[in-house]
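During the second year of the project, the team shifted from modelling isolated chains to modelling whole assemblies. The rationale, set out in the original proposal, was that interfaces cannot be judged from single-chain predictions alone. As a representative example for this report, we include one of the complexes processed in the last quarter. Its constituent sequences, exactly as entered into the pipeline, are reproduced here:
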Amino acid sequence: MPKVKIPTPLRQYTGGNTEVEVDGATAGEALGNLASEHPDLRQHLYTGDGKLRSFVNVYKGDEDIRYLEGQETEVAEGDEISIIPSIAGGSAEGRCK
Amino acid sequence: MPLKIGAGDLGQIHDHAREAYPEECAGALVGADSGDIKVVVDVWRAENTHEEERNRRFLIEPLEVKKFEEQAEEQDMVLLGFYHSHPDHPAEPSEYDREHAWPGYSYVIASLGAENVEDLRSWTLRDDRSGYDEEPIVG
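Output from the structure prediction step:
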């Protein structure tokens, strides 16, 4: 089974585990199974219509799956998938002090 | 949970916010989390790589976040959260902040004008993503 590395903010939903083994032949399947096994995690990975949130980055080894086959990227026994946050934000438009 | 930030680290956030003005600055807060209090031991500057409107947007790339996580672990610390500035806007999270926030992290926001940081507050995202709770900052 592939392993998924869990970033600090999501470890509270995986019982503190930094790495979780999940079934799945593709990165998308592995993430879906991770969210099914840890349901509180789902809303932080996916939007209401089931798409991965834009600031959730998924790497297979050192490569962003966006530059591979996306969620269809094949994963095998022992492959390491990492969920890596990007951090974004900013102030409200037009609302000056 | 209270967030403890010493005067030296607060000063570094203020300096970064002033240097970046009128653009937003951003960086990481690292230290220890005892379960009762989060103690900031160091603040690390990040590059704001947002392509446009950096006066009201910031972005820290995933590989930089990964580097912060790894560096913190190497030094027996944890990545507690992030700071960013709101030039000419209040030290409160925007809707845009909420859409992009992660649970568990502290989000310190510094509000500043052209000269000085006027307000600095810390927030955490609620588990259900419905909004933020403010956390007290202690010195």
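DSSP finds three helices and nine strands in chain B. Chain B has a mean pLDDT of 94.
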